[in-house]
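Issue 218. Parser rejects a valid record. Input:
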Amino acid sequence: MTGRPPLQEGRQWPGTRWRRALSALARRLAVWVGLAALASLAGRFGAQCWLVDLLAHFSVYYLLLAALAAPVLLAAGRRGSAGLAIAVILFNAWVLQPVRPAPAGACAAPLTVLQANVQGSATTADQFAAWWARQELDADVLALLEAPPAWEP
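Output the parser choked on:
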């Protein structure tokens, strides 16, 4: 016996529909939080595989998903999934911690950056250096992206 009086046939107790909806939502969110946890961890191994590196670009979204899911999971009584959501929040907050704007007035002089993606080019480092000299570009920083291993010192 549940201690509740019997209902007429076809009727539900008040709040039953909301509990079912909350439970269904919590199940879906638990799956999404699990996927966000896997993607967050896998994204840290981007140096080994460029395809896995793509997962690292969405840390903000993993954090937001987990932050929105944690209260729903707690309300639905899914403490394990809520704990995982909190872990995803903390991990991605740690990953994103260095990403913050510089304070106003931090740079007195402008900084010029030249970026070149040299992946897949048939150019050697010496040929690129000669091209750079011919361009007469005055840059403070030269950033070479996806440089082939042969270019490494």
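Fixed in the parser; the record now loads. Residues 16-42 form the longest helix (27 residues).
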